[in-house]
Amino acid sequence: MDQFGERTTRFGPNSCPAVVWVTEPESVEDCLYFWNRGALRPVQFETVPMVLLPAGQIQNWLGFGDRLDYVLARPGRCSPDVALCSLSVTEDLLHETAGLLSLQLSAEDPWSTTDWSAPVRQPPFTYRINLNVRRHVVFERTHGVDTPVDVHQFTDDTRVRLPRLSGSTVLARY
């Protein structure tokens, strides 16, 4: 993942709630929104736990709530702890899902901070429904890992061969 991590960022990333996306089995739109948010989530400077759940089926998943609690036990630099989202599921079903996961509805307005000394959150974890998580994953960034290369320069063309990850080479001219 080093090659995919952010090398530099600007205007983000911010601490944000874990994203639990609940979807009806045939909702392509929900899956598309979830995967697009997941592809944009930061991987180097911040973590954003994300999970996609089928509507009305997690009550049969043994130990899932405990595993989610383990993931949510992270520094408390934002509130709520979880953003329950969906395009195809009713708000009542989102609240029911939160109950199955032992989450408590948060009454406070969402907030985040950059305080790195924030204590690790413990259960019960809080949630809000249908928060706009896009604002937490859209920011300016560059990707990749810098690799220093020593090059002898000549007055004529200087050619440098750099290996790619796949094993082929890149020819660069200076």
Walk me through what this model shows.
The structure is a single chain. It is built from four helices and eleven strands. It has 174 residues and is α/β, with parallel strands linked by helices. The chain has one domain. The longest helix has 13 residues.
Element layout with pairings:
Elements: E1 6-10, E2 18-23, H1 28-40, E3 50-54, H2 64-72, E4 78-79, E5 82-85, H3 91-100, E6 104-105, E7 111-112, E8 126-129, H4 134-137, E9 140-143, E10 159-163, E11 169-173
Parallel strand pairs: 2-3, 2-5, 5-8, 6-8
Antiparallel strand pairs: 1-9, 4-7, 10-11
Helices and strands, in N-to-C order? EEHEHEEHEEEHEEE
Please report which band the strand proportion falls in: under 5%, 5-15%, 15-25%, 25-35%, 35-45% or over 45%: 25-35%
Can you count the beta strands?
11
Q: What proportion of the residues is helical, as a percent range?
A: 10-25%
Domain unit count: 1
Quote the distance from N terminus to C terminus: 30 Å
Low-confidence residue ranges? 166-174
Structural class: alpha/beta
Query: What radius of gyration results from the CA coordinates?
Result: 21 Å
Major beta sheet, strand line-up = 3-2-5-8-6
Question: Could you tell me the mean pLDDT?
Answer: 78
> Number of helix segments?
4
Indicate the overall shape.
elongated
Keywords for this entry:
two-stranded antiparallel ribbon; 21% helix; 11 strands; 4 helices; alpha/beta; 174 residues
Short description:
The protein is an alpha/beta fold and 174 residues long. Helices cover 21% and strands 25% of the residues.
